[in-house]
Design brief:
12 strands; binds iron/sulfur cluster; about 350 residues; DNA polymerase, domain 1; 12 helices
Amino acid sequence: MTPTLPNITDLSLKELEATLRSFGEQAYRAKQLHQWIFSRNAKGFSEMTTLPQPLREKLALEFSLLRPQIIAHHHTVEETCDYPTEKIMLSLPDGEAIESVLIASGDRMTACVSSQAGCPLQCTFCATGGMGLHRNLSGGEITSQVHELNRLATAKKSGEGITNVVFMGMGEPLLNTENVIEAVENLSRRSYSLNLSQRKITISTVGIIPEIIRLAKSGLKTKLAVSLHAARQDKRLALMPVAASRYPLMELQAALSEYVFLTGLPVTLVYMLLEGVNDTPEDARLLAGFAKTFLCKINLIDYNANINIKFSPVNRATKDMFTRYLMDSGIHVTVRKSYGTTINAACGQLATSGEYNRKNL
Ligand code: SF4
């Protein structure tokens, strides 16, 4: 259902300040209001008892207060998995839907969140890419998404909430940078209920060069992960046609060097091994050459068989060959366990429309 009044959760802190100024209120009232929305998770203006009654009434006349709602919730069924991975579908106030994933591992509870409904970048291995872009999420929708996941996480036996956030759900975060930055600031505000360290938040990108530099200059202390998947331009073009044609490998390499120079922080290069596509000794050599020029580590991940896309994961021997070659080249390598494959919650498996969605939820 489309809300008739503007949704106040879509306003940034600056926009709330401007709005309350236009109401003749002092700046601190905007901060109180923001805290009610993004820290105390008020469901309505009447709950906001630190605001004067006339202001609450005026806000209720001018705005709605709507948040993403959980509409589906699935757990992994892998017998080998110590902790269930959970895929959560949320509907947004305008009827769009997104998916998020909760991953428990050791003492971490990671929320993998969406920044867009759909994605325009059409990476060939990705279910979200097949949806096209429906729209960007507001900073408030991203923040509220994390709060919803935190509510689920704290309801578990251990009672622990979310410890880490990764922007690896639906969408390309750096095509929605302003709202992603707004959300990161909301999630990491000291006096707010989540109060996450920015170092526990990872922003993942296919390599949107101008936005990588913008992020580097933003002052955020978040981690950056770059989905590389091939260190040869023609192979990368075949896998990620839109991103690779706009941002060729050599320019991406230079941008990542600048990112490291500006922030002093390492970059994680994510490389998904695909049988017969990017898994040869020559691919390993090119990847090592790409990675050697700036401070980084490489995260090798498995491809997760997906019902509508035709790639296969590599075998153990190929993965070992890649890992050994990179380590012998002096590069820090991690091999990531894949969570959530049985519920299509793993990398590249999130999608919320069409036949794919109906079959899987
Ligand atoms: S991999 Fe990321 S950037 Fe590529 S289509 Fe999927 S969601 Fe978009």
